[in-house]
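Onboarding guide, step 5: your first structure request.
Type a short instruction followed by the sequence, for example:

Predict the 3D structure of this protein.
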Amino acid sequence: MNQPISKSLLSLIRKTEAAERSTAGGRDFLGRMPIPLRRPFKSGLDKTLAAHRAAGGAALDCCFLSGAEWYRPFDALTTAAPEQLPGMLVSTFYHDILKPELLAHYTPSAGRAPRPAHPACAAAGLDDPQGIFRTFAVIPFVFLVDEKRLRGRPAPSVWSDLLDPMWADDIVFGGWRPNELSAYQDFNSYLLLCLHREFGDVGLAAFAANVRHLQHNIRTATQAGSNSRDVGAIAILPWLQAELCPRRERTRVVWPADGALAMPIGYLVKTGEEDRVQPLIAYVDGAELGQVLSRNCYPPTRPQTADAFPAGARLKWPGWNYVRQNDMAADNRLAAEVFFAAWYARHAVAEQRACS
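The system replies with structure tokens like these:
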């Protein structure tokens, strides 16, 4: 049975999160990473800062978000005074870090050389041509298929396969809600955005018709290959969670032939702060973090870690032209509305049939 959180521990958590919220502005560094990478990233960051201090370097004030807070410190950046903006930002690809009014303060100096990239990343155009969002890693979303549940059907090999009616009620992807009567409070909005952009309203509705439900990626990974009613024949998971599935005698990771859906992880450097935060840049782009990323299936994008990707792997994502010509927050909301309208309508019909 879960033990209740003590008042002292709860107070400490609240104080930590309040400190993260209130002190993010004006620092040299503000960063966040996916949960599986938080501890190793923070460990490497602390080592970097210690080595920098030991070498007599100027103090660097860093805030790495390791608590429950994720959005609020970044949401506040667009209204912060320029002098209060962190010298360096590290984040997954999310619309709160891509607002033009924020990016304007992180434009690199003219003549900065392009960054070399792994061939799969270069082919997908992951690096920002304006050099503002400097991609250093990627979250690939892949398929985890249950061979037994396929029941003779060919495993999906490309994203459009997931729209086929033969997968009705057989797909699970990431999301969370407190109970079945509540709306989903967290879900893979990036997946819905990308599917909507590629296949439109009709395609996203077809995908919704095939989705059994949404649940936490770790829960799906541990249940895949079992007889649980909470999983189907196909799970859409980050590559790490797919590889963590313990029932490998029955499951298989499929890297989509048209490309794993890629969410970039990158950093921005405030104009004029390049020299000051250079030790942090060297850490984020360095070989030690690259090995951590590679071991955890968040492959680094630099060419020196070519074996971090499967042989012949391809990546796909919306692209920088789309990012700069569209309101991603609005598009995220629209994709979610289209998906959930179709998904809830299907479940309502199923419930009516069950009651009749």
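Each response can be followed by summary notes, for example: The first helix runs from residue 7 to 22.
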